[in-house]
Write a structure and sequence with these properties.
The chain has 5 helices and 4 strands.
């Protein structure tokens, strides 16, 4: 990963979520790297990927199945709409600004 984007949001139950989206420089694909949750009324952030890796049944999975299990946990925790919103916001943040006439219109 050479580029990451952080998307902050508040869930319906009042928890705060920090979604980190990464761009893979080899494939050019966006992916959810990590989701951190701060439960309502707490200060300490809980990382979902860390909780998943403590499970032995997760560690037995193949790499492809691990990525599916991670995505399943992310979607179940914050919802598909919020995950898609984070991916879209990351993609739009890389969009270049178009040049307008006001930027280069000068008399000298």
């Amino acid at each position: 990963m050479w580029w990451t984007y952080s998307h902050q949001c508040v869930l319906e139950n009042g928890d705060k979520a920090s979604i980190k989206v990464g761009l893979d420089d080899r494939t050019g694909n966006f992916s959810i790297e990590e989701i951190g949750l701060i439960p309502k009324g707490k200060r300490k952030e809980i990382h979902l990927k860390q909780q998943l890796s403590d499970n032995y049944s997760y560690r037995r999975l193949s790499p492809d199945d691990r990525s599916k299990a991670e995505l399943k946990l992310f979607v179940e925790t914050v919802g598909e709409a919020i995950v898609n919103e984070a991916l879209i916001n990351a993609w739009e943040s890389l969009r270049p600004n178009l040049i307008s006439k006001e930027q280069y219109d000068i008399d000298y």
